Amino acid sequence: HLAMALFANLTGVELSHVPYRGSSVAISDLLAGRFLLMSDTVVATKDLVRDGRLRALGVTSREITPFVPEIPPIASQGVPDYDFYGWIGIAGPAGIPGPIVQKLYEAATAVTAQNGFEARLADFGLSRMTHTLPELNAFIRDDVARWREVIPKAGIRLDQ
């Protein structure tokens, strides 16, 4: 939903959100021609694209992705500010003492640096992001600011 809301916000295209309870039903309806456009993960769609049953219009990341390098980014096709990807992080309550935050950061970084971790992420169409703590804080701050603009314009609410 957010990927398409961002696209609509940046292009001025009017899109209708159709909620589904999962990818498989939505993809089935897309294949059946019940609607014309959707956004989903590389893992959910790449085999259908490679088989010719779906046509990929672009990937949502700003850069070419190693998972489907043959599909150009939307940003390279006339929507230069389009950059959407999900991310996963570890969070805790505000006020955790700095030394504990540092230990948690070091432990998480050590786990994600283990041999085979990136290959396992790739199975899910994910790649490892590496940030220092200040970079991570800036990344989150910038991401929150971006969505504070897009979400209200799209009329997205948590109760939908």
The N- to C-terminal Cα distance equals 11 Å
- In terms of DSSP E residues, the strand content is under 5%
Query: What is the makeup of the main sheet?
Result: none
Following the backbone from N to C, one meets helices and strands in this order, namely: HHHHHH
Would you identify the regions where 5 or more consecutive residues have pLDDT less than 50?
Answer: none
What is the helix fraction of residues, given as a range?
A: 40-55%
Total strand segments? 0
Number of helices: 6
What would you call the shape? Answer: globular
> What oligomeric state is this?
single chain
The overall pLDDT average reads 92
Cα-based radius of gyration, to the nearest Å: 18 Å
Structural class determined from secondary elements? mainly alpha
How would you sum up this structure, described in words?
By secondary structure, the protein is an all-alpha fold. It is built from six helices and no strands. The protein has helices at 2-11, 23-31, 42-50, 98-112, 117-123, 133-154. The N and C termini lie close together (11 Å). The mean pLDDT is 92.
Summarize the structure.
The chain is mainly α and 160 residues long. The protein has helices spanning 2-11, 23-31, 42-50, 98-112, 117-123, 133-154.
